[in-house]
Amino acid sequence: MRFAANLTLPAYVYLHLTHDYSSLDKIFFCEDAQQMLRKLPWLLLKSDNYFVPALFLVEEYEEELRRLFPESETVFHHLGRYLLHPTNVVWGYVTRYYQVYLAKAYEMVGIQIRVFQHAPVSFDTMLDLIINCSRKENLLPAVNLEEPGVPAKDAREKAVLVTTLYTGYFDKLRNMYYEHSTVTGEVVGVYQPSHEEQQHTDHQNHNIKAWAEINLLSFSDVLVTTACSTFGYVAQGLGGLKPWIIPRPADRNQACHRATSMEPCFHSPPSYDCKAHKDVDKGAVVRHVRHCEDLDEGLKLFD
Fold this sequence. Notes:
By secondary structure, this protein is an alpha/beta fold. It is built from 9 helices and 14 strands. 30% of the residues lie in helices and 17% in strands. Strand 13 (289-291) and strand 14 form a beta hairpin.
């Protein structure tokens, strides 16, 4: 990309970097475009993607980013905790719920469940994936189906925080640990702050609850998330957690696996190489930018 020396630059430019951006918008990640944008007083940007991994592929920024973030996979953790401050209303939700339901537990397990409309999965299939993952990785104890058992007075409590739009997963998990004792003798309490049933992106109160629950999830000692969910990404990043990932419906035959980086995934990265003028595999350019564990075409920062 080249610009005439006598070109009059506008006072501002709008940049559309949502998942449906055009090939022209992807030029944002080219060094020439970055040099031009630096001359503009205002940049208005709209994005629903965490596109930081692509900035690590801009050669001009490589040294500065390495100095700012010597550990590549902590970028969102530091930026999120520095920039994303809950309002008093949100923090009130968080602190009240935590103190009443979660504070007394010796360990907190967060379970984040997202069912995508474009990739539906049955309730029973998703529930089985969650339970099997939690049991296999020793995140939740098995239950004694033969004898109800009575927990000891000094039994330790494990808290399970479920965040999802639906009540069914919470009901099943709560009833399982309410009706049966655990083989380990632990007491398991299952909690769900809200169940909105449908996503209402433009409703302020809905968004307040979602942001509060993301913050609550970030307090988890261990975390289970749904593949490709930005809700889970933000929680794991804020908490500095490497979650166990429930596979996508298309990969349901795969077992859950633990993330090797706590960074969010950039779902719609550009494939265009500005210097070579052709599409390339951006996940094979540098060691610390590779493809995501839960989305082959995505990019993610690793150490």
